[in-house]
Amino acid sequence: MKPKRLREHWGSRFGFILAATGSAIGLGNIWKFPYITGEHGGAAFVVVYLLCIIVIGLPVMMAELAVGRTAQRNPVGAYRVLRPGTPWFLVGVMGVLAGFVILSYYSVVAGWILAYVFKSISGAVTGFTAAAGGAEAAKAHFQGFAAHPGWSVGWHFLFLAVCAFIVYRGVKGGIEAASKILMPILLAILLVLVVWSLTLPGAAAGVKFYLVPKITTVSVGPLSFPFFKGLTGSAVLIALGHAFFSLSLGMGAMLTYGSYLKKDADLSFSTMTIALMDTVIALLAGLALLPAVFAMGLAPDGGPGLLFHTLPAVFSSMPGGVVFAVLFFVLVAIAAVTSGISILEVVTAFFMGELGWRRSRVVPVVAGIIFLIGIPSALSFGAWEGLRLFGLSFFDLMDYLSANFFLPLGGLLIALFVGWGWGPKAIAAAAEGSYHGFPTGKIWLWMCRTITPIAVAVIIIAKLAGIG
Ligand code: PHE
């Protein structure tokens, strides 16, 4: 084994929880969640998503944290020390590869967000009143911007540079310190926006769309029963994939953050807090956006463009819109940075742990590689738009594959590892994990053995078999 440098650790439990919550809360919550909810029928989708979080998200998060904390290693090294000589380390390898891919396209969207922070400050994205063309004009502006190779690649670079700067400074001095400053700001801004959105005239329709499921009657043979309207099989896969994406699961991000915990750190409380915060923020983000969209009489299913087409039009047509626009894009930028650094840290920890490189050398190298992999995604909205693989643009393909297949598969495997592969150590980890006498650890182990992997497998197989 290579000579070991002293492993870095979090400064406090609070710092760890903020950093892990920062990883979880990201573009997934603020950009993706409201629009996929809009596309997949609103409240019914929210219900399925919440089920996925409880049945699958919580056990997998605890599994990742437990494996990381026990092994005190990066995702590949962790399986190597816990189960030497077995192929389990490949789960870690898959996670690290997913890290490269996810950050490469995540950074493209995050780059647009950074640009929109500046654009909103200069008023460039709040002039789209109905008279000036509204959402259509905002869309044209965005498309022109995203199609410009210099801008999209340049902002992608800048976002990675910000993440690299923080990760370069280490776990405690970089990631934890940044999270401690940024996360409270994020929460404060979000609350301001929710209050603002809910007090707009006409907001109630948005709240209803978002929180009250529509029920329809479905008949199977002679039986008919009530069911969620608009909820399809693909919506279930998307809800599952999103649960993984949003909680930063399935690629070793939580495992890596868990590996900076002291060996005796508690896991149940942290897991529940992180998952709860992530879910509350996703719901609040929807409450900040959808009522405003309805209040302005716009459609909620604006797709990925919701943030860049619909919202600028919303901000343009209200008093004080510039201020809210700036606040909003700053909020999203913070969320993106605290997630981006966690993905970069996975890859960084891998290079440090397995190749024995120093942090100062790893960070520029991996950030550089991710920058290059991201270029085709950055060009997917302009120069390379015509390039289609399986009918999707490069960017969409990366997003679809990683969120809907690699993360769930990674999560499935880690649940199987804890449930069946890890052996007596898993039972020991479970025994520790009771929370004020409530046997969270035992329930966790049981779920990792049964419901969690089965649920993930059924959803993935159903999708591959083309059901739904
Ligand atoms: N959870 C982040 C978000 O919601 C994205 C992410 C995925 C971060 C995987 C780390 C690992 O935006």
Q: For the report, how would you describe the main beta sheet? A: 2 strands, antiparallel
Which series of helices and strands comes N to C?
Answer: HHHHHHHHHEEHHHHHHHHHH
Low-confidence stretches: none
* Whole-number total of structural domains: 1
Which percent bin holds the helix content? Answer: over 70%
Q: Which strand order spans the largest sheet, edge to edge or round the barrel?
A: 1-2
Give the C-alpha Rg: 22 Å
Shape: globular
* Average predicted local confidence, pLDDT: 88
By secondary-structure content and strand pairing, the structural class works out as mainly alpha
CATH topology: Sodium/glucose cotransporter
Number of strands: 2
CATH class: Mainly Alpha
Terminal residue distance: 49 Å
Number of helices: 19
Going by CATH, the architecture would be Up-down Bundle
Associated small molecules: phenylalanine
Strand fraction equals under 5%
